[in-house]
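Hi L.,

As promised, Glycine--tRNA ligase:
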Amino acid sequence: ESGLVSSWLTAYYLSLLQDFYLALGFPLDRIRFRRLGDDEKAFYASEAWDFEVLLESGWVELVACNNRADYDLNGHARESGADLSVMEDGVSIVPHVFELSMGVDRSILALLELAYRVENERTVLKLHPYLAPYNAAVFPLMDKPPLVSYAKAVYEDLKLDFDVFYDQSGSIGRRYRRQDEIGTPYCITVDYQTIEDNTATIRDRDTMKQERVPVSDIKQYLTLKTALELC
């Protein structure tokens, strides 16, 4: 309605693309759409936009967005002699094509750069939990038989449904730091209270806050926390 884009088709796909990247964790103030001029866009495009992200090197194109209009199907119809039109509200029209050309490697590079942080004395990769290499890590508080046995049982159960990592080497602080560096969003620690009441400590990577959760509820907790919600 404002005239910023030429059609509802363009508006729909640009909106869908933005929602997708926002859901992956791209900050709104680091992304933009840049409309291409006639001297930049492809000959077949009635309208073209680049979806870009602001990195240390400047604005980088991630997705080329081309409204190809009826160029493709008119070409097929002309060469094949087939009628490729459809009826829309009693009117015969040739469907339009909207093309999204996405660079997966660039998107991953951008995600890694935007997620990388050095905070105080720790290095952390703040990836969206859905994208992290591991959904969670499981630790015994100390390398003691009852704690190790319980922690391994939790790990074996969780790995049936999630990507989880088990670690019992070194101090608990060092284990937290190792997981921060690779982006693991949640660390589950089995301690002596776990043996008493079947609750475990879950530490949040980004806030470093900890909460006790019943072991029986950990799967539900991770399911909710690691889901990718698209608008």
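Residues 8-23 form the longest helix (16 residues).

Thanks again for sending the construct details.

K.
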